[in-house]
């Protein structure tokens, strides 16, 4: 049997290597139009920033490695330019000498990946304008920096790559202006979590421009649609990627609404004996069961392995993704998995949202605050998604939440997890457990939570309400939610007689715990509709600022 793989980065090489482990007899050939194979694309910003010193650390394998270890023939600088699935043939162009030849396959794997989205901006193809998708892109950027010594850079887009470049270019002394067309950074996060990232960027002296569209790229910067000029010696366009499916579509292979290739759980396309994997395919979401396009190196490796297993006689099924992502920007780790609040509501879920602020471990052991936003289904109690921001222990909690959501855990189940505890690693009730307690209280014990968005809607509704600040007077006097009255927890019961049981009462403290304690007192005394502001004053303050900006 002859197996041909088109593409030799994460998915393609994984597919070929797995097929060889299962089958010693088949011929396995990979065609790759680029010069580099099996490289770590996620490490590229750190090479640009000097944290990774040797390019070879990102490209540890070459065609000779695969030939020697796996008896796989990899042809670099060879572009597959045509695919005929009826005759099971391909046409290949050797980019080194422009020779074109034909090859045939018994089984084919398409792993053509994704390409950078380059918006239709005038002047985008100039020499000081870059995307960052592969090793050659990376070398163009470092070559420009070495030759031109730019003092300033403009980054267009605030996804993973854009924000990682903010840090790494800043680390080598380049001033950064970040331009985002949306009204928040990190489009994958909900706005109330994105504000933490925005504030951190500003603290690190990154100029952040939101709701801004670039109209023209000039030699020394950009012109925005509102006419404003922004200076920059170099420009990086980090506006996302799209699946590279030109060849697949020419071969009659079906694509979905996202534009990516449709595959079944075995990675097989609509054409018999043609499989696809990696950043060119649609995945399906574990929570919703709906198709999504979430290109990540981890998923590419996984889907490549599944394709390799199945083209070589095995039976391995893909179980879907949650869209899990994590990245570092300066001192913060930013993580998400599952559905955002915005996505869950758009899909028709009735949601409960909690904001939980707890240290990663005791402060006396160097703990740092984690902000955990969790979204659960009010009807079933199932956890739908989580977003976490913090300086320590973010990845540990993210992976626990990923596991819980993958196996259909309810919010109440989180409290019962037997998680590891010792002061160097966690607090006695881990932040994951606290998230479960907060959500369980809201879903099953009527300890209802209110976000600032919901408070703003309540104010606009005209319904009578009262906001109670349960903190000590000194904290209240320094800053408080507009319209709140100060009733400290320690003597709160003395004020019960002054409150109307028939109106909506909203409580809050700094982070949520004391506000919940006051909420409990009110409910135990017969108050009918009592809410606690999710995440307390700390979360409220950030999101009140957002409302004022809008």
UniProtKB/TrEMBL annotation:
The keyword Cell membrane does not apply. Its cofactor is FAD. It comes from the Bacteria. Residues 461-549 form the Rhodanese domain. InterPro entries: FAD-bd_OxRdtase, FAD/NAD-bd_sf, FAD/NAD-binding_dom, FAD/NAD-linked_Rdtase_dimer_sf, Pyr_nucl-diS_OxRdtase_dimer, Rhodanese-like_dom, Rhodanese-like_dom_sf. Keywords: FAD, Flavoprotein, Oxidoreductase, Redox-active center. Transmembrane segments: none annotated. The keyword Oxidoreductase applies. One of its GO terms (molecular function) is oxidoreductase activity. Belongs to the class-III pyridine nucleotide-disulfide oxidoreductase family. This is Dehydrogenase (Modular protein).
